[in-house]
Structure to design on (297 residues):
């Protein structure tokens, strides 16, 4: 009778014969296979830094392969950008030291010192007091060179517009003052303006002093004030002999003199009598004073 196929006795290769003391499962186990009984090691066991290892374990990275970790890092670098490596910064904490603050702001583009800001004074300006004050404050606040340049340019534009506005306003005020005083002083305007300069010189007043008076009192009142001082000093007429130079009287002065002549019988007789020897002179004088009263030279 034929033997049974696959029996141990016949040496059936379908099932290995286990040596004494071993099971067939032990014989068939292959290292690295699910049936292997030797303990498994984690790639994390090779990490020697305790803090790094603790962080990785807290993230559960010991449960994955080293290839997974490399893949995660690769994806992170693609997201951040390899060109940004080494150029990232960490925001300052509330308890940051002065050294940490300096390093942080310098990395953002702040110069090492306030004097190293690249902005220079506009052409024609020599006083750098304002700019230096702005530089120091900008450095203290951690403002970058590019940011400070933009702020300084805006500030310079504002100051330029302000100065131009003040110049235009002063020019308008001066023109209005001249028109008003020409009306009030009439033919005496030029003489009074010239005598104001002389009086200011004798009083030791500089142009800055006169500008201060104009700003404090207004251009009209300032000129009247200096003219009044000049009149009291007795120099208003430049020692021309008469109290008021003929042809340079104010309308008020001309009217006062004309009123006096009208009350003068001798003058009126000469003015009314065409045959009087002084008739021509009286007519010319009255006509001249009448023009001055109207403000005409």
């Amino acid at each position: 009778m034929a033997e049974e196929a696959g029996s141990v006795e016949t040496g059936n290769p379908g099932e290995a014969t286990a040596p004494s003391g071993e099971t067939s499962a032990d014989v068939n186990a292959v290292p690295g296979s699910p049936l292997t009984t030797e303990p498994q090691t984690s790639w994390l066991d090779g990490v020697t830094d305790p803090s790094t290892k603790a962080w990785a374990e807290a993230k559960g990275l010991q449960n994955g392969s080293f290839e997974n970790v490399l893949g995660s890092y690769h994806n992170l670098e693609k997201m951040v950008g390899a060109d940004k490596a080494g150029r990232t910064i960490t925001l300052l904490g509330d308890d940051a030291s002065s050294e940490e603050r300096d390093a942080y702001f310098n990395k953002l583009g702040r110069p090492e010192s306030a004097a190293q800001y690249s902005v220079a004074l506009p052409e024609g300006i020599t006083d750098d007091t304002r700019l230096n004050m702005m530089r120091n404050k900008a450095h203290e606040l951690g403002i970058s060179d590019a940011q400070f340049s933009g702020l300084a340019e805006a500030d310079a534009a504002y100051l330029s517009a302000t100065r131009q506005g003040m110049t235009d306003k002063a020019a308008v005020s001066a023109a209005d003052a001249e028109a008003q005083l020409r009306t009030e002083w009439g033919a005496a305007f030029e003489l009074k303006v010239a005598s104001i300069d002389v009086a200011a010189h004798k009083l030791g007043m500089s142009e800055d002093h006169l500008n201060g008076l104009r700003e404090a009192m207004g251009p009209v009142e300032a000129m009247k004030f200096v003219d009044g001082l000049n009149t009291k000093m007795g120099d208003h007429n430049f020692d021309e002999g008469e109290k008021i130079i003929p042809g340079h009287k104010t309308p008020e002065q001309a009217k006062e003199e004309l009123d006096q002549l009208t009350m003068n019988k001798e003058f009126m007789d000469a003015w009314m009598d065409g045959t009087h020897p002084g008739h021509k002179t009286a007519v010319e004088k009255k006509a001249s004073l009448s023009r001055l009263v109207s403000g005409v030279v």
